[in-house]
Every structure is written in C-alpha cells, then in structure tokens.
Design a protein that fits this description.
The protein has 22 helices and six strands. The protein is mainly alpha-helical. The protein has one domain.
Length: 452
C-alpha cells in the first residue's frame, strides 16, 4: 500500500494540471469546459481504471489523463472542430477521444495491436515523445512568464527576474528539480506545493507588509495579482460533474474532417500504452519469454479508460510511466494500483485547493517543464545515423513546438517518412498502414485544411 501512495504522490500533479489545461485556464483562453467538472472527471477516471488495472490485469500500474494527449486535445482537436464550424468544439473533441477509445478497445480485444504498433518505426515513436516534450516545456516557460512574445524575434527571455511570477516559478522548479535529482518521492507535487506557498506569501504579504512594492508596475501587472485567487477553504463538497458528463458529440466527431484526429489519438494512446507497459513490465518483472504477461488485460483496461474518460469529460486516459516510482519502492502487485486509485477517488473533496492552484499558471509551469525533461530523453533512441529515419523524426521533433500544434508536427513526419523511404530505394521498409496514413494526412492538408 505504501508503494501505491508513492505512485499517487508522483503523478498527483495531473489533478491540478489537467483541469487547467482542458478548461483553457492555463493559457488564458477558455475552451468552454468547466474546471471543476474536468477535475472530478480526471479523478474518477484515474481512480476507476487504476483499480481495474490492479484487479483485472494485476499490474502495479496506475492510469490518468495523459500529458501530451491533453495538449493535442486543446491545441489541435478543439481548434479543428471550431474551424469546422461546430458551436461547442470541446464536445466534438470529446467525441473524437471516445471514438479513438472504441477503436483501441476493438484492437485490444482482437489482439491485432502489434501490427499497428509495428507500422510506425521506433525512431518515429521516440520522436513523437520528444516533440511533445519540447512543446509541453515551451508552454511551461510561457505560462511562467519566462518566455514572452516579441514582434521582432517571435519570442524572447523575460529579464525581469524579480517579477513575482518568475519568483513563484523558479521556486517550484528548483525545488522539484533538486528533489528529482535526489530521487525523492513526489518531487513534482512537492514543487507545486512550494510554488503555492510562495504565491500565497506574496499575494497576502506584499500588500500588507510592503504597500509600495505591491503598487509597483512589476507587481501590479503580474499574473499573481490579476489571476491568483486564494481559496477560502481547503475542503468542500466536490464540484458537479454534470457540465462535462455525457456531453460528448460523437456524430460530428465521426466526419471526414475529424477522422485524422481520431487516428492520431489512437496512435498516441497506442504508443503511450505500449511504451509505458513495456518499460514498467521490465522493471516489475512482467516480461517473460520476450512477452508481456496478461498484455491483453492491460491493453483492454487502458482502452476502456479512454472510452469511459470521454463520457465523464476528460481527454485520453492512459497508463502512467510514473508508476515506476511505486514499483521502485517495492510495488509488484495490483494492490499498488488499487491503492493509488482509492487516493484519486478521495481527491475531489479538496476542490477549493485544486482550483486555487489551477488559477495561477506559474504554479503548475514547473510540472510542465519537468515532464518535458522526462519525455525528451527519448531523443537518444532515434536512429540518427540513418537519414531516412532521422529526417522525418527531426521534422516531428521541431515541427510540433514550432508549429505550436502536435497534429501539424506529426503530419510533417508521417507524410515525409514513406516518401523519403520510397525514393531512397527502401520503400519496402515501410508498412502499408504507414502509406495509408501518409496519404490520408496529405489529402487532409490539401483538400480540407487549405480550404479552412
């Protein structure tokens, strides 16, 4: 049970980050999704399927909405649905998640997931994680106020390090970084707690103790003074789930314009799950004779989580690599995941505290940067000595953050990969499914996106 607590502490940052991302509160651009409802949906889906993973698959692996998929949801799926003219694009995006979950469930039950997984080369898979990691970290720096827009160079460094926003960010970032380096449990969550305490001290203390400093332009115009809302209580009744529960729009999601997003969500979920379960399986001794034991049980649980998560009102739910912290602590059975799930189930009663943390982006920005650090480690696994692998991988890695769109970055790599392989005389190295995906994406950009 202690291992389950360790896993929970390691991944509990998602309780704060997920509603801030999906509601748009993190970016100052409301998506239409209710913060409290998303938080409850996040906790419920994490709880239900962590428990299911523990009881059905008997894995010490916890689940929660995936980092990367949530940004794809907000920055790609919702804008695409809005561009298509749908009045409530977030509902269409939830429908896309639901349909991708249905496909994943069918593939898992049919046992043909290996064929789809093998269609994408290992270098491409690793480059997706790297690109998303860079994107997430970049957004974290922007949310902290460390990186700002500039008309001449697009972006620039904020040199006003005495800004309250940067003080809050650097406090959480340094605390979390040091604890991560020292392999402390729950490093990211402790970093968020440190940022929160500093934010509270500055918000309450500056006007009371240093009125002149509080009235300076640097402080007065900061996000701290404009956005940070101090909670009046720590515990309360959980927010209602009704604003997002069963609000998905499957009919409009099942259209030609939205099809590429269903496929990409499917691939992202497939890659995340396989990579996580293989990595965790090695650590927990679940791989025998080069096969993952009870793999179908684990994949079925993961696929069902995305389906049910979309009904509750959250983006793709997937197995978490942070489960390795609990395994390292000694968790080897499903009891670890069940314990983590029960802790997620209790989290919504702390909704005032969660809303306070989510209202102020510099508090959660360190989590985004450090998750980016974890994801970028995959760059070492790209086959850089093979140009036919390296060039498409590089296009994905750079395309995602520079286009500020996961889908556009993926498209650069997915479209170019079979073309480069074919004209290099190595067309047989590419699976037919990759040719199909490349053709679908190319047609989408030529005939659909160009007309938007």
């Amino acid at each position: 049970m202690t291992a389950g607590l360790v896993t929970f502490l390691t991944m509990a940052y998602i309780i704060f980050v997920q509603p801030a991302v999906l509601s748009g509160q993190m970016f100052g651009k409301p998506t239409g999704m209710d913060f409290g409802a998303v938080m409850v949906a996040t906790c419920l889906s994490s709880a239900l399927f962590s428990i299911m993973m523990g009881l059905y698959a008997r894995y010490p692996v916890a689940l929660a909405p995936g980092m990367g998929e949530n940004f794809f949801f907000v920055f790609s799926a919702i804008p695409a649905a809005a561009a298509a003219g749908y009045a409530e694009p977030w509902r269409v995006a939830l429908g896309i998640v639901c349909l991708s979950g249905c496909l994943f469930l069918v593939l898992s039950l049919a046992g043909i997931r290996e064929n789809i997984f093998e269609a994408i080369s290992p270098s491409m898979k690793h480059s997706i994680a790297v690109g998303i990691g860079l994107f997430i970290a970049f957004i974290g720096f922007q949310n902290a106020g460390l990186i700002q827009k500039d008309p001449g160079t697009a972006v620039k460094l904020n040199h006003v390090f005495e800004s309250p926003d940067l003080i809050v960010f650097f406090t959480g970032f340094i605390v979390a970084s040091v604890l991560t380096a020292r392999r402390a449990r729950g490093a990211i969550l402790i970093g968020i707690a440190a940022s929160t305490l500093v934010a509270l001290a500055l918000k309450v203390g500056l006007p009371a103790l240093m009125p002149a400093a509080a009235d300076s332009p640097i402080v007065r115009d900061s996000m701290l003074m404009k956005q940070f809302a101090v909670a009046r209580t720590v515990v309360s009744s959980p927010p209602p789930l009704s604003p997002t529960f069963m609000k998905l729009d499957v009919i409009h999601a099942f259209t030609p314009r939205m099809m590429p997003f269903i496929i990409i969500f499917l691939y992202m979920a497939l890659f995340d799950t396989m990579g996580t379960l293989i990595g965790i399986g090695e650590q927990a001794g679940l791989i025998r004779d080069n096969k993952l034991v009870r793999a179908r049980h684990a994949f079925t649980t993961d696929a069902a989580s995305s389906l049910v998560g979309s009904l509750l009102g959250t983006s793709t739910v997937t197995a978490y690599i942070e489960s390795g912290a609990g395994i390292q602590y000694g968790g080897r059975t499903g009891l670890t995941a069940v314990t983590t799930g029960l802790l997620f189930l209790a989290a919504p009663v702390f909704s005032p505290l969660i809303a306070m943390v989510g209202s102020y982006p510099p508090i959660t920005a360190p989590a985004l940067v450090l998750v980016g650090v974890m994801m970028i480690s995959n760059v070492a696994r790209v086959q850089w000595d093979d140009p036919t692998e390296a060039i498409p991988a590089f296009l994905i890695i750079m395309g995602i953050p520079l286009s500020y769109s996961i889908s556009d970055g993926l498209a650069l790599g997915f479209i170019s990969y079979p073309i480069i392989k074919a004209f290099s005389g190595r067309g047989r190295d590419v699976k037919w499914l990759m040719y199909l995906l490349s053709a679908v994406l190319l047609a989408y950009y030529i005939f659909v996106r160009s007309g938007m």
